[in-house]
Design a protein that fits this description.
Layout: H1 11-14, E1 22-25, H2 31-39, H3 41-46, H4 55-67, E2 71-78, E3 81-91, E4 94-101, H5 110-121, E5 126-131, H6 135-143, E6 147-152, E7 155-160
Helix pairs in contact: 5-6
Bound molecules: coenzyme A.
Coenzyme A binds near residues 109 and 134.
């Protein structure tokens, strides 16, 4: 059974405007945007690393992520505006997915659209880790075809075989 208590959804939720969001590869020009999203309080609360990141650390991470053939870093765009990011990192034969939606773009289907598109682009096993209280991300992972395989210390471990 789904770990997420389903809440009733209206027509607007079921077909939010964010569903049209598309992915493009990130580049160094996205550094400031990704930095702001990474340090947003809700993003930090959902992350395993809750402390704010310093700019220099972020820039080094971005440069190495962009050069790494075992990573994908995408920016989601909706009508030409950046609305979120999806990251995929190859770990032990699987892609580990993580995602963030821009604070002003949350709640209209962007997260679901972007993560589902990323999952459709990747072949083979996928994994994602979602904190127990993060109901929207649980829904997003399920919509992208992942299912809970384990729950450890308040974290749900999702997989697509
Ligand atoms: C969590 C987050 C990614 C959600 O993105 P979003 O674009 O607002 O999500 P969506 O609008 O696509 O909603 C996804 C689903 O969750 C549902 N949902 C949203 N908020 C919810 C809530 N509080 N409780 C239950 N369901 C909720 C939506 O109705 C939707 O369901 P549906 O696809 O079945 O219609 C975004 O809030 C965010 O970036 N948060 C901070 C970082 C984070 O949590 N990253 C993920 C770490 S795993």
């Amino acid at each position: 059974m789904s770990p997420l208590a389903r809440r009733p959804l209206g027509g607007e939720d079921a077909d939010g405007p964010g569903r049209r969001a598309k992915l493009r590869p990130a580049d160094l020009h996205d550094a400031a945007l990704l930095f702001a999203w990474r340090n947003d309080p809700a993003t930090r609360a959902a992350s395993h690393h809750a402390a704010p990141l310093a700019w220099g650390t972020h820039l080094s991470w971005l440069q190495s992520a962009l050069a790494d053939p075992d990573r994908h870093l995408w920016i989601g765009e909706l009508e030409g505006r950046p609305v979120g990011t999806v990251r995929a990192e190859r770990c032990g034969g699987a892609w580990r997915l993580s995602w963030t939606v821009a604070p002003e773009a949350r709640g209209c289907g962007v997260g679901r659209a972007l993560v589902s598109r990323a999952a459709a682009r990747l072949t083979g096993p996928l994994r994602a880790e979602v904190k127990l209280g993060n109901l929207a991300s649980q829904r997003i992972a399920e919509a992208a075809g992942l299912a809970v395989r384990a729950e450890v210390d308040g974290v749900l471990y999702y997989e697509r075989a």
